[in-house]
Amino acid sequence: MSNCDVALRLIVAAFLTCCPSIAVGQLSGHFYLEKSTFATGEPVFLYFQVVNDGPKGENFHSADPYSFCSGYEVSVSGDPHATSSCAGGFAGSCLSSSAVLLPGQKHVERLLLNFDHEINAPGDYSVQAARHLSHVIVGVDFYSATTVKAVLEVHTTLYFRVDQEAAKTPQAFQDWVDQLHSVDPIKRSEAARTLASVAPRSLEDTLLAFADNSDLRQFAPLAFHRLNTPRSMAAMAELLRKTEPGTYEHMKSADYLAQSDDPQWFPLLLEIAQKNARISNYVDDAAELGGDRMLPTLVSLARSRDEEFARINAVTAMGSTGSRAAVPILLDLLRNPNHDIADRARLALRLLTHRTAGEDPNGDPQSEYPKWSQWWVSESATAPIYKAKECGDFTPLR
């Protein structure tokens, strides 16, 4: 890309940031909400509409709007920001295709904000939304590596309020329950996602039945987590026992049990972590819930012969324990001649302390040992140690 192209993209991006609705070539698009005030526990959908204002048909990129390759970037006030210790990223692969938008036609997609964001608490919220939509005129090969696609970019900020005094429509939830039985699998999935995300306790029996329905099971962990009742958490544990390690339902169930802060689930998570030490999620989950109780297991796994997975996972998971006793162990591992082990020890130290010892996060971890060691000698008695759910920014060591 030439310097001129880069400059042009920066100018367009700056302009789009100020404009909630913008046209590029033949296409224009904008975000909107159905209303500005929602009842507590009500689904909140963000809509995106694209219109073909030109004389020719357009092929545009199409993908599951909830997948990372959809072209959407959405954040809600209260989400962890990019520099937070709790910030996550996107990875993996997803299916995508193209769709045709004829002249004068419009296409509308919607995303359920409750699905990826906690917005049930009463209060005022803001939504930062962006869409990057590639498109070409019909007749041009959309998938050719040599095709230069136009890109519609829309950025906006929207506001809404969740009001516990606002009235909910009694029929609303029943409509979603009825949609669970639709012959259209996309509609069934949308209904399950919506009900799992808002999880009204009046529908606890309906939501608990998700675990026994192969079409709806992927939403069962979220439904049980959002319900957060004794029955739903017991059902989560049972789902963890019945499903196969590595499946989405199994991994999400373990994640949510770890977040429950209920020690009764630690033996189950410990057993799964020991049997599946090569899968980092399970080791992290047991560490998050077990804390100091998990440390002996992690020390043992850190001596495993499986240097590629089990040892690496164990060292990383020490950062999820919230254990002060883990810090001296990690300081020793920071000097390990194995670069991967030392690097994960540094990551774990950062997660526990919310501190950094160097400006370059990818620099040599072993070289940071003196600074970490000196800091710990002087502040070990008073330095805050953070649990996995205690989010915060990283600050340099003094």
Polypeptide structure, described:
- With 398 residues, this protein is an alpha+beta fold.
- It has helices spanning 3-17, 113-116, 170-179, 185-198, 204-208, 220-227, 230-242, 248-259, 266-275, 280-290, 295-301, 310-317, 326-333, 339-353, 369-379; strands spanning 21-24, 27-33, 37-39, 45-52, 58-63, 72-76, 96-101, 106-112, 123-137, 150-163, 355-356, 395-396.
- Strands 3, 5, 6, 7, 9 and 10 form a six-stranded mixed β-sheet that branches. A four-stranded antiparallel β-sheet has the order 1-2-4-8.
- Strand 1 and strand 2 (27-33) form a beta hairpin.
- Helix 4 (185-198) runs parallel beside helix 6 and helix 11 (295-301) runs antiparallel to helix 12.
- The protein is globular and about 70 Å long.
- It starts with a helix and ends with a strand.
What's a quick, concise take on this entry?
Helices cover 38% and strands 20% of the residues.
Helical stretch count? 15
Cα gyration radius (Å) = 24 Å
Low-confidence segments: 1-24
State the end-to-end CA separation: 42 Å
Give the biggest beta sheet.
6 strands, mixed
Strand percentage lies at 15-25%
How do the SSEs run, as a string of H and E? Answer: HEEEEEEEEHEEHHHHHHHHHHHHEHE
Query: What oligomeric state do the depicted chains represent?
Result: single chain
Structural class: alpha+beta
